[in-house]
Structure formats: structure tokens, C-alpha cells
Design a protein that fits this description.
Layout lengths: L3 H17 L3 H16 L7 H12 L4 H12 L8 E8 L5 E8 L2 H14 L3 E2 L9 E9 L3 H10 L4 E5 L2 E6 L4 H10 L4 E10 L3 E3 L1 H15 L4 E6 L1 E3 L1 H8 L1
Parallel strand pairs: 8-10
Antiparallel strand pairs: 1-2, 1-3, 2-9, 4-6, 4-7, 5-6
């Protein structure tokens, strides 16, 4: 779990770049649509949809876009049929990459992902080659006094709490995510970011040269229209982070 907030910082910076390319809105709307299709259109009863809507709103996706995506997902209006596919592989330095794809064309997605790995020094693996290194967890990055964070989070069912650069990473089971986040907010503790994500069981520390190579591959994968998220098991020191994300 170490370094996850740093990775989130990089993704946040990259997210702004993606928005400039005009792709972020479409990807977030696609996630809303798929969540609505799989669990229904009521976010109060569909945690995945609630999270997808939160992400879309935090990126300033217009409400009309979100509502249309929900209606496409529930079948109220016609929309494409998206399949979720997970690709697994390795980046330079032996970093494991777990790639989430939402696509309406499996052949296109497979070809794009495979060629992107090859062109950027990575290797696409077989199913199961790296997925076992990741677990779906709730992740909450928060500010606040240590005792206050621990009391609120643990009482609400948090699995783990770790200090990270003056903040705290709170890890939960997906089923406890909403309750823990609500408990922190009810206690007056600021939540900087929160998501249900894939957390690696181990991480690989990277030097600057390898970090740049890994991030080039991640950039290229996330630039693909069908790629929704890329999860990686690396850790970067503050010095290397400043060099590669500055």
C-alpha cells in the first residue's frame, strides 16, 4: 500500500492532461453507464454507480452527461454494449500493471493494448500473471490528527491506517468503504480523495530512469480510448516523484 497516495498524485496530474485531450469526460461517462447497467440506476442502492458519479462530478462532468449515461446504462435510451476486460503485464523494472478496459470492441481493445505494451518496453502477460498481486479495496486519503482518524476509521470498520507524508491512508474492505468515509466526514475529518481501487500487496521502489520509463507506458495505456484505469505496484520516493512529475 506504500506510495499509493503518491501514485494518486501522479494520476491527478495526468487526469488534468487527459481532460485537455477531451477524453476524460467520455471515460468517466462510460464508467457511469456500465455501473448503472450492472447494478441499477439508483446510486443509493448501487455503490459502484455512486462512486462513478462522484468521480465524474469531481472532474466537472456536466450533470446532463451523467444523467444520459445512467439512462443508457439502464436501457432508457439506446447505448453501446460495453464489456469489462482486465489485461495483465509488466512494465520496465518488473513493475506489474493491471489494466481495466471498458470496450464495445474486444478485438480493437486487445490489439491496442498489446501494441502499446510492445512499443513502450513492456510485456503483456497471460491472465492471472499479475492479478493475484492486487486486491480490490476502499482507499481514503485524509488529513487530521492521528488519534481522531484512527478512532473514527477503526470504529467504522477500517482494515488498515498508515501515515503518508503528513496525511493518512485508510484502507477498507469494499463493503465498508461508504461507512468509513461517512464516519470520517461526520467526525469533521477532511477527506482529500476516496475510491474503490486495486491495491498492490507488494511494491517495487523505482529510480528516476525506470520511473520515467514506467510512466511513459502508463501514459500510453491511459491514452487509449478503451482503457479506464491502470494499476501498478511501484513506489516512488519524494525526490524521484518531484523529478518525474514536476
Amino acid at each position: 500500500m506504500s506510495g499509493h497516495s503518491k501514485w494518486s498524485t501522479i494520476k491527478h496530474k495526468k487526469g488534468a492532461k487527459d481532460a485537455q485531450r477531451g477524453k476524460l469526460f467520455a471515460k468517466l461517462a462510460r464508467a457511469v453507464e456500465v455501473a448503472a447497467r450492472e447494478g441499477g440506476g439508483d446510486p443509493a442502492a448501487n455503490a459502484a454507480l455512486a462512486q462513478a458519479i462522484d468521480k465524474a462530478k469531481s472532474a466537472s462532468v456536466p450533470n446532463d452527461n451523467i444523467e444520459r449515461a445512467i439512462k443508457r446504462g439502464t436501457g432508457e435510451v439506446e447505448g453501446a454494449q460495453y464489456d469489462e476486460i482486465w489485461y495483465e503485464g509488466y512494465a520496465p523494472g518488473g513493475v506489474a500493471l493491471y489494466v481495466q478496459v471498458l470496450t464495445d470492441n474486444r478485438n480493437r481493445a486487445a490489439s491496442d493494448v498489446r501494441s502499446t505494451f510492445s512499443r513502450n518496453g513492456g510485456n503483456l502477460g497471460e491472465p492471472g500473471s499479475v492479478g493475484y498481486l492486487f486486491a480490490q479495496k476502499g482507499y481514503i486519503l485524509t488529513d487530521g490528527a492521528e488519534d481522531d482518524v484512527m478512532l473514527a476509521a477503526l470504529e467504522a470498520g477500517a482494515e488498515d491506517i498508515r501515515a503518508s507524508g503528513g496525511q493518512f491512508e485508510v484502507i477498507t474492505e469494499p463493503s465498508d468503504f461508504q461507512a468509513v468515509r461517512s464516519a470520517l466526514r461526520d467526525a469533521g475529518i477532511a477527506v482529500e480523495s476516496s475510491e474503490i481501487t486495486q491495491i498492490p500487496s507488494t511494491t517495487i521502489p523505482l529510480g528516476e530512469e525506470t520511473a520515467r520509463a514506467v510512466l511513459r507506458l502508463v501514459d500510453a495505456l491511459e491514452d487509449l480510448d478503451d482503457v479506464q484505469s491502470v494499476f501498478a505496484n511501484f513506489d516512488i520516493s519524494d525526490e524521484v516523484l518531484a523529478a518525474v512529475a514536476g
